[in-house]
Amino acid sequence: QVQLVESGGGLVQPGGSLRLSCVASVSTFSDYDISWYRQAPGKQRELVAIITSGGTTSYVDSVKGRFTISRNDAANTVYLQMNSLKPEDTAVYYCNARWVAYSYWGQGTQVTVSS
Fold first, then answer.
1. What is the pLDDT of residues 65-102, one digit of tens each?
2. Is 78 exposed, middle or buried (0-12, 13-18, 19+ CB in 10 A)?
3. Are strands 10-12 and 109-113 parallel, antiparallel or unpaired?
4. Which segments within the chain are labelled E, that is strand?
5. Considering the chain, what is the average pLDDT of its residues?
6. How many CB atoms lie within 10 A of CB 47?
7. How far apart are CA 20 and CA 98, in angstroms?
8. Is 90 exceeded by the pLDDT of residue 1?
């Protein structure tokens, strides 16, 4: 069983920045594709960004140029750097780790963008 722990959420003003972290308790972390999802109240969970085991990244159009996903396999950690935050980025952000048929979720961290 893989445990994922997200941190770094909080309240930030529009235009501000936050960096989310996702730490995984697994020895083969480098084999996993890691994604960040978000879910706003009343909306479906959506994929925000993904970084593969090989380091390839992809983003949803709404965050391109503002968010950066990265990983440090030695620290079993994936980051989501979020810049130029907008009120519509407000959501609970979840980390997901996937390897073959296995998929694990963290508990989520709240991000609120408001003045």
1. 999 999 999 999 999 999 999 999 999 999 999 999 99
2. buried
3. parallel
4. 4-7, 10-12, 18-24, 33-39, 46-51, 57-59, 67-72, 77-82, 91-99, 102-105, 109-113
5. 97
6. 13
7. 18
8. no
